[in-house]
């Protein structure tokens, strides 16, 4: 039988690309694919025949999808470009702001002074990053606040090495006092005294400087003296030891370090206690460095009501005797467990120092002394501390002892009465108390 050319390509599926054999139409030496009536498409395997409506819908769907994908891709790319630009711009702006604050807060001056300092003396001052301290305090949350004062806010923080610290956000540094502020940081970094809260470092990249101190766990002397739940463990022996430790610190600040420091805000709230009731003097935010060739400084009066030296308040002339007066008020707090200022009391008894001196003059001291420290064993020692407090509270600074003399006197009182085992002799009682015994029996 003679083969015909009409069905060669269409008869063999490998020789054509039509979707179905019936869609294949042979021609001389070739073929073509044709959809049946009512269908549209190329009738090929790649472009099969479809009903007209389905094809249109499909084409519209494909076109819509392509359009959406194109638009979305364009938007995403645009957003990424904008984000990257803003991120770069924001980082640059943030870096610029940090640099500005660092300069305004005296960072370059501090770096220079620290580089000139003998590194074998004092403590290393670490420069903390802003982000590190934010993270340590949970972005300075309310729950991390452990203290508020006229010179800043204090937060409890946890550093990456699990060290617990106290972070103080100081008030904004006056541009005219930057040198003084930096000098104080350098001076504090050189203080090497176990009864001073240690300055670990600072951060100067914020509008207000951040100072980082060691954390002291047992609250303040103010808490222990004026909260009943803490007072029951606060014996006279502990109180006298705290007085001795604080006096030694102030004597050290006034006379031992190369550039003397006047604390200017000594009060029971600025005396921290550790778990063994060891005193740690804190908060040097109001402190002033004293040039060696000056005995007094003219300053704006700063401090806490009830502890302020009356002479300093009147003249504005700050001396180391101003700290002596404030320490005298703390001594009276230790003797009485009363607050330096109490607005709940009658007007003539609101100021503790004034009330104490009046009661002493009127031989009515037993009315104000804390019953917990008044006992026959300690009465002689107690009265010597009473008269030391009286000397510290003299209106004229020149009539007050120096802190070095105060520290020596407390040490002498402690040693004498310890050697006597606290026994009060009759002749000593008459000498200390006068003809009228001020304590009830």
UniProtKB/TrEMBL annotation:
It catalyses: L-seryl-[protein] + ATP = O-phospho-L-seryl-[protein] + ADP + H(+); L-threonyl-[protein] + ATP = O-phospho-L-threonyl-[protein] + ADP + H(+). Keywords: ATP-binding, Disulfide bond, EGF-like domain, Kinase, Membrane, Nucleotide-binding, Serine/threonine-protein kinase, Transferase, Transmembrane, Transmembrane helix. It holds the Pfam family PK_Tyr_Ser-Thr. SUPFAM superfamilies: EGF/Laminin, Protein kinase-like (PK-like). It comes from the Eukaryota. The chain crosses the membrane at residues 63-87. Residues 140-413 form the Protein kinase domain. Residues 6-45 form the EGF-like domain. Gene3D superfamilies: Laminin, Phosphorylase Kinase, domain 1, Transferase(Phosphotransferase) domain 1. ATP binds at residue 168. Belongs to the protein kinase superfamily. This is Wall-associated receptor kinase 3-like. It comes from Spinacia oleracea.
């Amino acid at each position: 039988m003679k083969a015909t050319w009409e069905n060669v390509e269409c008869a063999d599926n490998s020789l054509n690309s039509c979707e179905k054999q019936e869609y294949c139409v042979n021609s001389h030496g070739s073929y073509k694919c044709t959809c049946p009536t009512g269908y549209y498409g190329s009738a090929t395997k790649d472009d099969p025949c479809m009903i007209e409506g389905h094809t249109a819908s499909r084409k519209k769907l494909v076109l819509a999808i392509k359009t959406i994908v194109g638009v979305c891709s364009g938007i995403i790319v645009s957003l990424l470009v904008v984000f990257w630009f803003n991120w770069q711009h924001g980082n640059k702006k943030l870096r610029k702001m940090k640099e500005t604050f660092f300069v305004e807060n005296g960072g370059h001056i501090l770096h220079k002074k620290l580089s000139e300092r003998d590194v074998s003396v004092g403590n290393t001052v670490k420069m903390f990053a802003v982000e590190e301290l934010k993270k340590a305090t949970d972005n300075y949350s309310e729950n991390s606040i452990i203290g508020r004062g006229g010179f800043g806010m204090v937060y409890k923080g946890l550093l990456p090495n699990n060290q617990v610290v106290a972070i103080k956000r100081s008030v904004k540094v006056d541009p005219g006092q930057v040198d003084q502020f930096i000098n104080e940081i350098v001076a504090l970094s050189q203080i090497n005294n176990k009864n001073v809260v240690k300055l670990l470092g600072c951060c100067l990249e914020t509008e207000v400087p951040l100072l980082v101190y060691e954390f002291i766990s047992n609250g303040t002397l103010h808490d222990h003296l004026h909260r009943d739940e803490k007072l029951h463990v606060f014996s006279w022996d502990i109180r006298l030891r705290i007085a001795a430790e604080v006096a030694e610190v102030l004597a050290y600040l006034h006379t031992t370090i190369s550039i003397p420091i006047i604390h200017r805000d000594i009060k029971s709230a600025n005396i921290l206690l550790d778990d063994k009731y060891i005193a740690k003097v804190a908060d040097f935010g109001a402190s002033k460095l004293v040039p060696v060739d000056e005995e007094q400084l003219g300053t704006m009066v700063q401090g806490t009501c009830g502890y302020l030296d009356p002479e300093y308040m009147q003249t504005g002339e700050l001396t180391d005797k101003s700290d002596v007066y404030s320490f005298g008020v703390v001594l009276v707090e230790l003797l009485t467990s009363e607050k330096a200022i109490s607005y709940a009391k009658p007007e003539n008894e609101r100021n503790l120092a004034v009330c104490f001196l009046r009661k002493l003059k009127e031989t009515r001291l037993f009315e104000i002394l804390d019953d917990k420290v008044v006992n026959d064993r300690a009465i002689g020692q107690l009265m010597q501390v009473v008269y030391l407090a009286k000397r510290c509270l003299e209106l004229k600074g020149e009539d007050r002892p120096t802190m070095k003399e105060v520290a020596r006197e407390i040490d002498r009182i402690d040693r004498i009465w310890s050697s006597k085992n606290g026994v009060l002799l009759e002749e000593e009682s008459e000498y200390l108390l006068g003809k009228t015994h001020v304590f009830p029996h």
